[in-house]
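Take a record.
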Amino acid sequence: MDIPWKTRLVDITRDFCNQIIRSEKEAEDIGTIFKNLMYYPEELPKYLPALESHNFDLNGTYRIVGAKFGCPPEQLADRLRQLRLMVSRRLSHVQAAFFESKECLFAVLENLEPEELHRVLEQFQTEMSGAGSGMRLAAGEAVPLRELPVGFRRTAAVLRLAERRNRSPLYYDELSTEKLLISVSDTRVLEEYRRAVLGRLESYDHENGTHFVEILERYLFCDGSVQKVAEEMFVHRNTVNYQINRIKKILGKDLSSMEERMELMLAFQIRDVL
């Protein structure tokens, strides 16, 4: 179609820019609705008309993907645009919303199959390996709209776990014991357990500048192999033996006991998900 000769290029450009601004404003508004839903789930009925008007399936299932970037907070807006662009490019057929919370970015994705989720997150991880230094990705389970706030809390916990264990992407569906811990609604119970088991050693490290908590964690997850710990920490095995004996005395625990080792490992898993 020919453009009428009286139509000025500046007018076309202005209209195009206005459309982009309206589109971005609409995306921000939808993102705000979903963010509010995460923190005020009781207000879901109020948001349903707006979601339906933007073609979200009220009876569909949703997954939340979280992203944590190793960048200053002022760069998060640019990262959010990158995340939105990635989803629109790779998942153009999927309804999506985006929001920021506690220096993390979240995407709400409608009716997305696990295989497609894995493919897209792996691609994004590869694409952003340079620009997103330290980027971590996590994905929650598929839930109906009314359960999204629970899905959000679980995704945020998986994202913390991905960051602390240096694993990305990390998926809620693929977790084992951690899945049970993440699902506990009263986190005070978990925190009390962690303090009861590890608190004495954490206080000792803080007061004496030691790193016994780290050493104990390595020892437990190396199946009690002093040699493996020595190799990982580039120290002599006698040094590790000495430190493990100190740890035993501080905690008053028998690390050869399977029951006590399981208690300690559970405390470390709690620390990772909180």
